[in-house]
Write a structure and sequence with these properties.
Radius of gyration: 20 Å
Number of domains: 2
CATH superfamily of the largest domain: Tetratricopeptide repeat domain
Shape: elongated
CATH class of the largest domain: Mainly Alpha
Number of helices: 12
């Protein structure tokens, strides 16, 4: 778990493969599948991660003492909602994401994925509400998640044609994503388009000339 949290995914993957899952008790196998799912997700293997979560949840049903797996099941259900959203299965994901309580460790990512699903459904106001719960600064969250929420609020306003509000949020993360050229290019192109739609062609020109990113919410 520590290796995964530190982003040392190769080491985490090699370490967990040393575990003989057949020798684990059911409760330990649930934790094993859960951690393997986190590693798979971090490596971009969303479908594989979802399969492991489903397997772990089925294992939890065989445990007679539900108190022993209560915390694990809540975490798995939250992760399942996030993974379903990331897989594009928003109809399944949305009810699960909406039910994740604020004290849950997955809450922040769940709110982002909830907003993403609302945008895909063109429910832009609801998307903004989900993102704003992170971007507002009312609670401590990972700075990268806050930037994502601010950027996505800008995207939502852009899609609604409210370009002045879109600009406010997009500009707030203008100096972000130096370590991700694709996201940086996406942001700059969106800023260029926003300025252009506001008739501010000189400002728009400052952001043109970047290659389009591939991760813009559709």
């Amino acid at each position: 778990m520590c290796l995964t949290d530190l982003g040392r995914l190769d080491k985490a993957s090699k370490t967990i493969k040393l575990v003989d899952e057949k020798r684990l008790e059911v409760v330990d196998r649930i934790d094993y599948e859960s951690e393997y799912a986190r590693i798979d997700r971090a490596q971009g293997m969303t479908d594989e991660a979802l399969e492991r979560v489903e397997r772990a949840l089925k294992l939890s049903e065989t445990v007679e003492d539900k108190d022993r797996v209560e915390h694990a099941v809540r975490s798995l259900q939250a992760l399942r909602g996030v993974l379903l959203a990331e897989s594009g299965k928003c109809d399944e994901a949305v009810p699960m994401l909406e039910d994740i309580p604020a004290q849950d460790p997955w809450w922040t990512e769940a709110r982002i994925r909830l907003g993403d699903c609302k945008i895909k459904k063109r429910l832009y106001r609801e998307a903004i509400e989900a993102y704003r719960s992170i971007a507002s600064g009312d609670r401590e969250v990972d700075p990268s998640h806050r930037k994502t929420a601010q950027r996505n609020i800008g995207c939502a306003y852009y899609y609604m044609g409210e370009y002045t509000k879109a600009l406010e949020y997009l500009k707030s993360v203008e100096r972000s994503y130096d370590d991700s050229p694709a996201l940086k290019a996406e942001l700059y192109n969106l800023l260029a388009s926003t300025y252009s739609r506001l008739g501010m062609t000189q400002e728009a020109d400052r952001y043109t000339g970047f290659s389009s990113g591939s991760d813009r919410i559709q």
